[in-house]
Amino acid sequence: MSELKSLSSRIDDEFAAVEKKVKDLQTEWLQQYRERRKRLKDLDQIFQKLAEAWKPRLDTLMQKFGDRVQVTPRLTPSSREAAFEFQAKQGRVRLRFSAETDRDVSKVILRCDLEIIPVYFRYQPHAELEFPLDAVDEVAAARWVDDRIVEFVRAYLSMGENELYSQEHLVEDPVAGVRFPDFAAGATLEWQGKKYYFIGEETRQEFARQNEVAVQ
Questions:
Q1: Is the whole model's pTM more than 0.85, yes or no?
Q2: pLDDT, tens digit only, all 216 positions of the chain
Q3: How far apart are CA 60 and CA 55, in angstroms?
Q4: For residue 131, how far is the Cα from the chain centroid?
């Protein structure tokens, strides 16, 4: 009987050990949950500070493109995002800036994603910058955004310079004999139901003189 009692006690000890382990895990999980909630509150304050630096820069980008761009913001407890959709004759252009965190809310991840379809030249489609949650450098983050915006503008303008994009939009100055994208025309003239494009006012005036067209 004593041996059976000993066995029973040993079995009970195993069950008790498992129960204690589960309770310890529950306590640990609860503590991790509380710490994560606290970090999420800290993250919200960090996002607010980043927004103070980012917003005027993104507003400047919007102002430069005017009605050629639409912006869609998106906010969640763990991320902030601004998605830009640009109008372009040459294709579809999407730019996305986001500030996110990892699953443990231990760091801040800045991302910039650019999509150009179709694409006939090289550009940087993705860039990232990371900071520990307790060591976010707002100045460095602002400088990073500036650099990404300039890179985007350079890529956007390259679309117009690339002949594969602009071929269907190429026009020719009838006086200078120069071919260029229609959006780059320095002057235009409607004559006999046709629109003519010129590199500048000088060749436009010369065309008018040659063809005896009255221009203002």
A1: no
A2: 677 778 888 888 889 899 999 898 888 888 878 888 898 899 999 999 999 999 999 999 999 999 999 999 999 989 999 999 998 777 789 999 999 999 889 999 999 999 998 877 889 999 999 999 999 999 999 999 999 999 999 999 888 777 666 677 789 999 999 888 888 899 999 999 999 999 999 999 999 999 988 876
A3: 8
A4: 18
